[in-house]
Design a protein that fits this description.
Number of domains: 2
Strand content: 25-35%
Low-confidence stretches: 1-17
Structural class: mainly beta
Distance between the termini: 33 Å
Strand order of the largest sheet: 3-4-10-9-8-5
Number of helices: 3
Length: about 220
């Protein structure tokens, strides 16, 4: 089961969580807000990241067939039409201005790609080329803005970033040791942000890519 999406807790009972029927006793399955359609798995963006408007809604590309919360157990294999918290029948829309394999909209929420086996590079995973207007560093303590990257730095970063091979987080997380990552916002022209975490010592990004010296040297200037 993907480490980025499912947390399994045995014995310890957490408030606000429940035990899905059919699961072993004294176990908790807790999902993040995700949905899968057309063999692509998406996670919900924070509501403060972007406010969806009617003009953002494109064509309907599918609908939710199964709500996993309170039903799916640990061994559930996520399928097309599955969602963690969206109700059955919820329509899934294209997000106008973006490819649907990057972002979609459901129930007034933007969902951003997390897993796409067809993507070979970050540029294929994230439809952001020509749509970036800046980058900034966020606090690892409270998520607040810390500083902006200079234009000469973020433009070079993005150019390199989009060429990186996308291999998935499961293939890079073991490289991360006792290191505090740097939280970065990639600011898009529509006012939303792509939020990533970069461990410069390990040279690994949380979306599932290994960085290079150019990225490492740029971000090291802002640590």
């Amino acid at each position: 089961m993907k480490r980025t999406f499912l947390f399994f807790m045995s014995i310890v009972m957490l408030s606000g969580c429940s035990i899905p029927r059919g699961c072993p006793p004294n176990t908790i399955v807790e999902w993040v807000d995700l949905v899968k359609i057309n063999d692509i798995q998406y996670h919900a963006l924070d509501a403060t990241n972007y406010t969806v408007e009617e003009k953002d809604l494109g064509e309907i590309i599918g609908e939710v067939k199964y709500e996993m919360a309170d039903q799916a157990c640990l061994n559930h294999q996520i399928k097309n039409g599955d969602a963690a918290f969206l109700s059955v029948g919820t329509k899934l829309y294209e997000f106008n201005g973006y490819k649907s394999d990057f972002r979609i909209i459901a129930d007034g929420i933007v969902y951003e790609v997390q897993e796409n086996d067809k993507a070979k590079t970050i540029g294929e995973l994230y439809d952001i080329e020509g749509k970036v207007e800046g980058m900034s560093v966020r606090s690892s303590y409270d998520g607040s803005h810390v500083m902006d990257l200079k234009e000469e730095h973020w433009t070079k970063f993005i150019n390199e970033f989009l060429t990186l091979d996308f291999v998935g987080f499961d293939n890079v997380y073991k490289k991360i040791e006792d290191e505090e990552g740097t939280f970065l916002d990639i600011h898009l022209k529509d006012g939303s942000s792509v939020r990533i975490l970069y461990w410069t010592d390990a040279n690994v990004l949380n979306l599932g890519a290994v960085g290079n010296d150019t990225l490492k040297n740029i971000i090291s200037l802002y640590k």
